[in-house]
Amino acid sequence: MSAHVEPLGGQRHRHADGTEHAHPYSGPHDHHHHHGHSHGLVDASIKRSRAGIRAVAWALGVLGLTAAVQAAILALTGSVALLADLIHNAGDALTAVPLAIAFALRSERAERAAGLAVVGAILISACVAGAEAIFRLVHPQDVAHLGALAAAGAAGCLGNLLAARIRTRAGRRLDSPALLADGDHARADAYVSLGVVASAAVVALGLQIADPLIGLALCVVILRITWHSWETVRGR
Questions:
Q1: In the 8-state DSSP scheme, what is residue 4?
Q2: Nearest C-alpha neighbor of 182 from the set 102, 95, 108
Q3: Could you report the per-residue pLDDT of 73-97, keeping only the tens digit for each?
Q4: CATH number for the domain that contains residue 218
Q5: Domain coverage including residue 120
């Protein structure tokens, strides 16, 4: 009579009819594969892609809301300083599109191209706002609803600070030069928006020409931001 040999390392299972049998051992993960479970790690590039898109989406939402508030107030005030800030904030929000595409493609080359697109958007917005400021210097226009104008500047400041925090934290965590450049850009924009508040205060003192002058000064600041962002992207 031959003896029944248990498979090495096997596990016994009892059935409803009282009989038992053993499953042979085939490795430390056999039980998990039998039940269809997988414990493999998600690829690091996929995690980075998702985190980058999430950060870009949050920043887009914040700046989109900020731009919408400022656009509504611009129609009331006619301030060229607010126009410069609005154009810049709207352009900043739209940079989320190339950044999101770059992270979705999980391509360093695409991410670098997105960083250059960010710089281009900043430059174009500065030129548009500067042209409008010069036009207003030649053809002055009264600024109205100064309280609303100051509120628009404050909204721009807070919106940009929040967007900068989101982008910079994600940029450091993901080692993304494009996000870091965008974060620096938004942080500087927060101080640019304070120029709108200053415009409301000075115009309230009776100096209407201060509004286009401040708008022109904001354009100079934006150009400096453009150079700083370009150095960040080029350096990486």
A1: P
A2: 95
A3: 998 898 888 988 888 788 777 777 7
A4: 1.20.1510
A5: 44-235
